[in-house]
Design brief:
- By secondary structure, this protein is mostly helical.
- It has a domain of about 120 residues.
- About 85% of the residues lie in helices and about 0% in strands.
- The chain is built from five helices and no strands.
- Helix 1 packs antiparallel against helix 5.
- The radius of gyration is 32 Å and the shape is rod-shaped.
- The N and C termini lie far apart (about 85 Å).
- About 15% of the residues are buried.
């Protein structure tokens, strides 16, 4: 009888240990699965945020380049080889170029305004500083003065925008 009781107690202990081990293992596997799911959610969110940042910075640089191209066209027509500034500023083509310049500026400004939550404070501050240089003239200024100011502002800040955008998209990379 004692042998049966000993065998029964031993078997019960083995079964209880097996059940407890399985229960603990299942609970551990469940916790691991939850942790892995949370890691995947964070990674997915970070990937989406990176995509949004890349798109916003890339589009901003592209629109700045369009604005620069429009301003450069005006500079070329006004002061390029064989150009006559007085004739250009009285020609209807000047008005067309002027519309393109302001449309490209508004497009750039709208993009930056729409992505203020994506852009870093450094980038937004640089944009504000650039804007103050871009509009560093009186409304009574002659068009040729305004074009030169716009050209100078873009030339002065363009490389800074590119460096900062690259850094914001890939902060771990070395930027020369």
């Amino acid at each position: 009888m004692i042998e049966i009781l000993t065998a029964l107690i031993g078997t019960t202990g083995i079964l209880a240990g097996t059940w407890l081990g399985a229960h603990l293992n299942r609970k551990s596997a469940y916790q691991t699965a939850l942790q892995l799911a949370e890691i995947e959610r964070r990674k997915y969110s970070q990937d989406r945020l990176w995509d949004a940042k890349k798109d916003a910075y890339s589009l901003t640089i592209a629109r700045l380049n369009v604005l620069w191209k429009n301003v450069a066209t005006m500079v070329e027509h006004a002061w390029g080889e064989g150009s006559d500034p007085e004739r250009y500023f009285n020609d209807p083509i000047f008005n067309e170029h002027d519309i393109l310049r302001w449309d490209s500026f508004r497009s750039l400004k709208s993009l930056v305004d729409d992505n203020t939550l994506i852009f870093s404070d450094n980038f937004l501050n640089l944009f504000k500083e650039w804007e103050s240089h871009f509009f560093m003239y009186n409304e009574e200024e002659y068009p040729e003065t305004i074009i030169k100011i716009h050209d100078d502002a873009i030339r002065r800040f363009h490389s800074q925008f590119i460096k900062l955008a690259k850094f914001e998209i890939t902060p771990d990379s070395a930027i020369s």
